[in-house]
Structure formats: C-alpha cells, structure tokens
Amino acid sequence: MSDSYLSAQDLSHSHNGYPNASDPSFAPSNVPSVPTIRKKLMGYVGFANLPNQVHRKSVRKGFQFTAMVVGESGLGKSTLVNTLFNTTLYPPKVPLAPSEERPKTVAIESIGADIDENGVRLHLTVVDTPGFGDFVNNDDSWRPIVENIESRFDSYLEQENRVNRSKIVDNRIHACLYFIQPTGHSLKQLDIEVMRRLHTKVNLIPIIAKADTLTDEEVLQFKQRVLSDIAYHNIQIFQAPTYENEDEETIAEAEEIASKIPFAVVGSDQPIQTPDGRIVRGRVYPWGVVEVDNEDHCDFVKLRQMLVRTYMEELREYTNDVLYENWRTEKLLSMGVLQDSSVFKEINPAARLQEERVMHEAKLAKMEAEMKMVFSQKVQEKESKLKQSEEELYARHKDMKDTLEKQRNDLEDKKRRLESGRPLTPEKGSTQRKKGFLRST
Ligand SMILES: Nc1nc2c(ncn2[C@@H]2O[C@H](COP(=O)(O)OP(=O)(O)OP(=O)(O)O)[C@@H](O)[C@H]2O)c(=O)[nH]1
Ligand SMILES: [Mg+2]
Q1: Domain membership flag for residue 34
Q2: Which residues line ligand 1 at a C-beta cut-off of 6 Å?
Q3: Mind listing the pLDDT tens digit for each residue in 245-276?
Q4: Which ligand is in closest contact with the Cα of 82?
Q5: Helices (H) and strands (E) in the chain, counts
Q6: I need a surface site. Which of 50, 78, 136, 323 has the fewest CB within 10 A?
Q7: pTM
Q8: What does the radius of gyration of the chain's CA atoms come to, in whole angstroms?
Q9: What range does the domain containing 374 cover?
C-alpha cells in the first residue's frame, strides 16, 4: 500500500447562495492561497494503476477531476463526499440528539484535495449541492445546479480564448452522482425532471442512496426498476465503454463495474467496530454492521474504482469531447456567431475558389501563348538557317559540277587530239617542254 497524502486545499464554502463568484471553481486562475492541511489518507485509492500510457502522460501534468453530488435532501450526499475523501474534510458532525435538526447543506460547496499516490498527482474536487425536495414548489430545483455546471463551462471557454492557453484549469464537472431515494418503487417525477435537465451537460451516474435500508433482493429489484425508468424516459446515463483490445482482467473489471450501475452505496465517516473486533467505516445496527468498504455489503468500492481508476479518463474525455463541445456550439450559435455571408463575401470559399480558377486559367493561357510564340520564332530561325545552308550547298554543288564539267571537256579535248596525232594545243609551258625535248634528242 502506498503512502497517500491529501490536503484540504480549497475548503472554501460559499455562504451567500448558489453559484458563487468567490468559489475557486469559478475563478480558477484566482484560487486563494488557503493554508494547506496535509492529511494522511487512510486507504489506497487506486488511480496509480491507470493504463500506462495515460498514466505516464498524466504523471507529468497531474490530473484534475471534479465530481458533483446531486439529489434530494437528506440522502447522504455530504456523508458520501466525506467517505470518498477517506476522511472527514467537513467539520466532524457531532452526534445529534434526536430532537436536534440535522445540518443541511445550504449552498453549493466545493471541496478539493491534492492526492499524491506513487508520485502521481490528482487534484480531486467534489462539489456538494444542497438537497432539494423540501419545498412546496420544487420545480426549479435543477436551476442552481445547471447554472453551476454551465458557469464552469463558461470559465473553461474563457480560458480557451485567452492568448496564453498553456495553463488551463479544468474545473468542469466530469461526473455527476445522482442520488436516488431507496424507495423500492419507481423513480420520482422530480428525479426524472432534474436528470433530464442534467443529462446533456454532465456524465450522469445514478446512485441508490442509503442502500443499507434495503435488503439485497430489494436492491437488485430496485436497480432494475431504476434502469428501466431511466431508459423509458430517454435519460442518458454514463455508459461504461467496453474495451476489446484489453487484457482479460481489465475487461472483467469493466464489465463488473458496468453491471453495478446504479451503484447502491452506503456512506459513513465514522469508524466503527465489527463483532470480530476490526475497526472499519460503516454503520451499526442492532442486527449487525454494514461496512462501507466491503464489496459484499455495498457498491461504494466499485463506485470509487470507477471514478478514480477505471473510467476517470473516459469521463474526462466524454466531458470535453461531447458534453462541453455541444454546449459550446450551442452557446456560440445563441450568441449569434453565425457565418454572415455578406460579411464574409470576400472570403467566401466557393467564390474565392472560382476566382482562383479563373486567374489560374488566364495564367495558363498566357504561358501557352508565350510558349507558342517562342516556338514559332525558333522554327522560323531554324527554317531560315536551313534555307541558307541549302542555298550554300546548292551553290557549292553547282561550282563543283562546273569545275568537273570543265575538267571533263579538257580531258576529252586532249584525248581527241592525241588520237588524231595532232600536237596538243601549243601552250606556253608546252612549247618549252617541246623545245627541251627537241634539244635532248
Ligand atoms: N442509513 C444511512 N444513513 C445515512 C447514509 N449516509 C448518510 N446517512 C445519514 O443521513 C443523514 C443525512 O446525511 P447528509 O450527508 O447530511 O445528507 P445530504 O444529502 O448531504 O443532505 P442535504 O445536505 O440536506 O442535501 C445523516 O444523518 C447521515 O448520517 C447511509 O448510507 N445510510
Ligand atoms: Mg449535504
């Protein structure tokens, strides 16, 4: 087991109503420096076992993960937040006298902790919301919650639009645990209404609260009821993706987690003693003890495993790629960021393309004409050169022919004279030769 440390970093509770501008989750760049209380985690959380690749990437950057708890009042949301953090980050609740009123959550509070496990840093934040259902009119119960979720999207969008985007703090809600009262009957109208308001903005994870108040069979039956109600009302809950290329162990783990949804949980931050003397987190009843961390007793361990280990990356990815992206598109459209064709005429891609094509064609035609001109010029030059050399050749040929003709005539003349015995035509040179000839004889 590794040493894990947890520091209550932003235990800033907003006191003046629902979404609060002083809440650090709304002004991420502006987190006030609250003294860090270092607490040692009692248990092993498990995110150090994330798949290696994700793990390595995240080791560098550290994780930011934010979960939100939503549901009717008194279902144990605040208790589960404490249970998740493995410690009482909230001021410990003093056991109340039966007549005393239970302290309710009255404003949206976010509670954060830096958890360090095997050198992997996780900044986990849980947003606790006041329970609803206590009022005569609960119609708008969802409003402050939706506003909170959207203002986190707003803050992210604002950071994305900054010049320097290297230090974006992701305070978006990556998972929303929706608490369902363990009635054993079907879902309440109020739950359906709230879930429908939330399902397009967050990864909804339904939770059956206070599962210790139901028997094992009742839990199984109620889970089926809840799932069929959710399907009937077209409510989109987080679907655990199944991996095909994973090892058997991972697939088995993923399947087991998927089979537990909606998670039936029991929350407790009070250590209790079991009949066999162990000190555990749980609840004591006259008929026995319910252990929070015992998988035979409830799904708390599976829920935590899903959040911080198996599906943390998927929850973050789906939030970013689908939920946030849809919200952003809608928001920009509603702000009128539409493509106004009159404004963008000059850079209307179709017109621009056409313009470019015309210009390109003109350029091609010009090049072709130039090339043709050069070609015909060269042909002309060549032709005249050829003509010239032909004339020269012809002249030379004529010369040679004339010379040859003349030589032939001369020779024939000589031949005739020799045959007729006539002396060769007296010539200057030949007279001398004759003289010489005569002299020697
Ligand atoms: N039986 C049982 N009781 C629980 C469980 N979790 C919490 N409780 C008790 O239920 C009461 C209400 O718990 P809270 O955690 O304050 O409930 P909450 O949902 O935060 O309530 P609001 O803040 O009003 O919305 C407390 O007395 C808890 O001790 C559980 O799993 N089983
Ligand atoms: Mg509460």
Answers
A1: no
A2: 73-79, 102, 104-105, 130-131, 210, 212-213, 266-267, 283
A3: 777 887 888 888 888 889 999 988 778 888 88
A4: 1
A5: 11, 11
A6: 136
A7: 0.65
A8: 48
A9: 349-431
